[in-house]
Predict the structure.
Amino acid sequence: MPDRMHLTERQAKWFESVRSGLERDTGRTLDQWSQLARACPEHAHRARLAWIKDHYGLGQNHASLVLNAAFPPATSWSKPALLEQALWKDTQCADLCKALKNLVGTLPDVVIGQRKSFTAFSRKVQFAAARPLKSHGMVLGLAISPETGGCLAMPGRESWSERLKSVVEITTPTQINEELLNLIRQAWERS
């Protein structure tokens, strides 16, 4: 289960409901399911997921929970520092992410959660997310309309929350300023 300090209260409750629901719905504990999963002849995660779903009828969330317990991944929500290092490996991108985290950290009640492909910023729900660009910058998604600020644009296909309705590319530390904080604050207020 992920480290609670990197989850919103809502996310922590959801993870706990999946975990408690596994035993309630199946009559087996997570340890018992993990033991069964270790008998899987597959080696790739997706193949294991298909195998346990096909052989035992588990749904996606329960199957993922079981496999993460049976075969702990090297990086996961429970190891946010490793996820962050892997994602923000470019020095310039890492510096921009650090500056952004410091700026967002000036707002109260912010939960910073690390995912495989982005860094999430939440209050009760996600209000922003950032991911590195290959061109040594980052894209910041915000839960506000693109019409809110002149630098905002419509997002492309992003893997983060559908709540994030606008994006801004950040390529220099000078862009992480009071104007950006104002936009972030507007998204934070709505979360």
Observations:
- The chain has a mean pLDDT of 88.
